[in-house]
């Protein structure tokens, strides 16, 4: 019973911690991942100036409608160079009030009185040693011209070179932190795109159903576009999070099974101890099925009691961790979150309860068969 109790508590605590980490990671990604992304099914860019997209921009359910133009480019700061993703966005992008939470240094500003400015990812900023408070040194960005001259003497003539001041540094995740966000008109001049965009990013008004909105846009745009929600935009991330959680669940379940099957030894000792009682019940007319059910119920009662106690202990621990941050992850200001996060989901409690119930039934069934064998031995003796 103690083994089952500890195993059940450990399983619910670890599943809840994984839920907490999943929430933290998804919240980080969702700060800059739109609810809906529209990209071309073929090619890199498309013309957003169509009747439907113009109507969609004015739709009452749409909170922000951001035109995006992005491409890899060479970035140079002082004597250091690196390749990074340049993402040009329209001003609607700044309607996202969570952007400031991603800022590690400076401010999330794309245009000020002195002109255009950029926000750079922390990984790129660290590599290039970009100083956001230096008003004199600007970041240079090189992008190949669409019409390159083969006979050009100076290789620089084949590139569009633009400079921009860096106003801030954002930090989300490695995939995003190797890029730079600039105003759309700056990106158009750099990449030589007068009207086309790479994507349209849409965030919806509070209360609007994302799935219903996505289906409506898919119906309107047809096969020429891919319309993705957040899970589809970060498919690999969601897959990794789910895989890790289920892998941990399976490993801990094996440990729990070992504890559950210890009940076989306990019930075996009980059957041996109750041989006289079994003989009395048998002589009073109790059949094999009834005696088997008695020991089956006994085994189920022991394991399920341990399971329920474990779930209660796990719940209490999770609530304390959630409200009082009992177990820290590291020193203050050295990690993104100070304590292990907790995310309680009732389906995890149900999953653990039924997992224990199924294997408890199997273990108790095997043990109860021994009582039937004892009845046969008693009958042979008589």
Automatic annotation (TrEMBL):
The chain crosses the membrane at residues 246-272, 293-317, 349-372. Keywords: Cell membrane, Membrane, Transmembrane, Transmembrane helix. One of its GO terms (cellular component) is plasma membrane protein complex. Residues 250-373 form the ABC3 transporter permease C-terminal domain. It is a multi-pass membrane protein. Residues 1-218 form the MacB-like periplasmic core domain. InterPro entries: ABC3_permease_C, Lipoprotein-release_system, MacB_PCD. GO terms for biological process: lipoprotein localization to outer membrane. The keyword Transmembrane applies. This is ABC3 transporter permease protein domain-containing protein. The lineage of its organism: Bacteria, Pseudomonadati, Bacteroidota, Sphingobacteriia, Sphingobacteriales.
